[in-house]
Write a structure and sequence with these properties.
Layout lengths: L2 H13 L20 H11 L3 E5 L4 H9 L4 E2 L18 E4 L3 E3 L4 E4 L8 H5 L3 E7 L3 E2 L2 H7 L7 E3 L4 E3 L5 E3 L6 E7 L1
Pfam family, one: LUD_dom
Protein name: L-lactate dehydrogenase complex protein LldG
InterPro entries: FTHF_cligase-like_sf, LUD_dom, NagB/RpiA_transferase-like
């Protein structure tokens, strides 16, 4: 018997004969926000990301402006020609997202079309993410409802950052040091 099986057997023995208890679940599953785009932009900015809110027609020009001369990874399915695919030599990555959360300023990638692989989004030092206004939801419950739990999910809340034991902030340790977000309205 493995350690796992042994532990589970002990748990089953301990709860054997206990009556079933109904656990009330009153989780909020939906919420309305007056300015969902504004709140998302504010929260992403709070995380030290660079934020641009532009009309959909101006997104291609804003992408070109943000990228400049950087050598970029452009994942399959992202609507833009060119790009690099070597995570070790690229300056950054440009992606879409699966969903974005206004309350938390979080971007979620499920690594579908236009979102790249985990390595492509975590190794380069710069990440430019294009978020459509219709991808922004008020909170985590609404985001989870849109996601497939079988897909690999990467939740991004600002540039990669951590603190050492003396609470000194260090950026870029576990992912891109710079996060730039274009919100397409």
């Amino acid at each position: 018997m493995s350690a796992r099986e042994e532990i589970l057997a002990r748990v089953r023995k301990a709860v054997a004969g206990a009556e079933d208890v109904e656990i009330p679940r009153a989780y909020r599953t939906e919420r309305r926000l007056d300015d969902i785009v504004g709140l998302f932009a504010e929260r992403v900015d709070d995380y030290r990301a660079i934020v641009h809110v532009v009309p959909a027609a101006e997104v291609p020009g804003k992408i070109d402006e943000c990228l400049g001369e950087r050598r970029m990874i452009v994942p399959d399915g992202f609507d833009r020609a060119g790009g690099w695919d070597d995570v070790n030599t690229a300056d950054g990555v440009v992606t879409n997202c699966a969903v974005a959360i206004a309350e938390t300023g979080t971007i979620v990638l499920d690594h579908g079309p236009g979102q790249g692989t985990r390595a492509q989004t975590l190794v380069p030092d710069y990440h430019l993410c294009v978020v459509r206004a219709d991808q922004i939801v008020p909170g985590v419950p609404e985001a989870v409802a849109r996601l497939d739990p079988a897909r690999p999910l990467t939740w991004i809340s600002g540039p990669s950052a951590t603190s050492d034991i003396e609470l000194n902030r260090v950026e870029g340790v576990h992912g891109p040091r710079t996060l730039e977000v274009i919100i397409s309205t």
